[in-house]
Structure formats: C-alpha cells, structure tokens
Amino acid sequence: MSYSVGQVAGFAGVTVRTLHHYDDIGLLVPGERSHAGHRRYNDADLDRLQQILFYRELGFPLEEVAALLDDPAADPREHLRRQHALLTARIEKLRKMAEAVEHAMEARTMGINLTPEERFEVFGDKDPEQYAEEAERRWGGTDSYAESQRRAATYTKEDWKRLQAEANEWSERYVALMAAGEPPTGEGAMDLAEEHRQHISGWYYECGYEMHQCLAEMYVADERFKAFYDTMRPGLAEHLRAAILANAARHSS
C-alpha cells in the first residue's frame, strides 16, 4: 500500500509544500514513485514522518531531527524511550511555568491607575479588571506578577494608549499575514512572534523563549485566551502558537 503526497498531507495535517521540502532536503524521501514520477509514500515513510513531526513539535531543528532519525545506533524502541523522556520533561516544565507565568492579556488588568472615563477611552467596552482577581490568585506570589504589577502601576493614560496601539497594530499585521496564506513556520510569522515576545518583555515582564512557549500553550489550552486571539481571525491562536514555537527553535539553534 502506498499513498500520494496529497493523501499523506491530509493524514498528517501538514501541507504538500512541507512534504516537498522534506523530500528536497533528504529528511523524508518517498520510498516509491509512480510511473509518472509522482511521489508515493509507504508505511515506513509514514512511520518516519510521525517521528519527524514529533520532534518538530518539541522544537527540534530539522537538522537535529535528521541526525536523530539517521543515527544507526538508535532503534525504534530507543526513539520511544527518548520521546517519553522528552515528553515527561516538557510536561514538568510546563507545569512549573504555568505556576509562575503571567499571561500578557491578564497582565494588562493589574495596577491600572485610570479614572473610569480614562479606562473607557483606552480600553473601550473591554473591562481591564476582568481577570485581575483570578490572576492574583493564580500567580500572585511570582516574580512575573510582581514585576508586571509594578510596571503597570507607573503607566499613565498615554502609556496605556501607546500599549494598546502597538497591540492593535501587531494584530492587524498578523491577521493580514494569515490572510495571505503565510505558514506559521515562515519568516514573517516567526518575526511577528518575536515582536509579540518583545512586546511582553517591554511592557509587562521579562519574557524569555521558554516562557513564551509556555504562553503559546496557554493560548490554545485555555478557551478564554483562545477566543481572545480567534476573534481577531479564526485559527489565529493555533497559528500563533506554532509561530512562537518555531521562533523559539530558530533562536535556540
């Protein structure tokens, strides 16, 4: 049994372009070709693709994925053991980070010294205190919470307006990027993900790449945060998550 590139793209949730790229760089070369020269993938190819996508999900650069999969000393059981260890470590890291990280959207709600009229002028009909109590309950003892609250308490109305304008302008550019069909692993999306990280660091608290990846997971795991981004454009939360992970991998390689 063999499958066309379109079928495999559908199975794996990747684009045909991605599969072509993997073939071009020798990462996943189809085991068969049709009489017309079209790519045909067999079961062994699908197994390898599954391994590739797993390591990519964990942020491994393609070069490292190739080295891992082509290691002659590693058998399928060794890959499973490595994957289990990586997943266990990632789960533990995310658990700890979830306890210590302040989400950027929630950070906006803390220490806002504005009159009711000024709040409406800056935030419109969105309540900037909507998640303040929950944020304090979940992260009140963390350094990130303390830093974001300290900064927010110093901001004037004009500061908040500049912050909102930057966020809105970024959102418009990200929506336009998605409308143009740009993939989350493309340079444009990764650059916007980097801007997103720097916006958090500049206005709220220092947000390193590991922390940014934790935020990315929260953007899709928590329905409120997912809805916040998806109201800009359906699917934006997932797209941004992938862009953040790709950007972190780019800066770690």
- Judging from the principal axes of the Cα atoms, what is the shape? elongated
Low-confidence stretches: 102-110, 128-135
Beta strands, count? 3
Gyration radius, rounded: 21 Å
Order of helices and strands: EHHEEHHHHHHHHHHHH
Taken as a percent bin, the fraction of beta residues is under 5%
Q: Biggest sheet, open or closed, and with what strands and sense?
A: 3 strands, antiparallel
* Assembly form of the protein: single chain
Strand order of the largest sheet: 1-3-2
Classify the helix fraction into a percent range: 55-70%
Number of helices: 14
Instruction: Return the average pLDDT rounded to an integer.
Output: 82
Distance, first to last CA: 37 Å
Please identify the structural class as seen in this structure: mainly alpha
Describe the structure.
This is MerR family transcriptional regulator. Residues 6-28 form the HTH merR-type domain. The protein starts with a strand and ends with a helix. It has helices at 5-12, 16-24, 43-57, 62-69, 76-100, 104-107, 116-123, 132-139, 143-154, 157-179, 187-203, 209-221, 223-230, 236-252; strands at residues 3-4, 32-33, 39-41. Strands 1-3-2 form a 3-stranded antiparallel β-sheet. 69% of the residues lie in helices and 3% in strands. The protein is mainly alpha-helical.
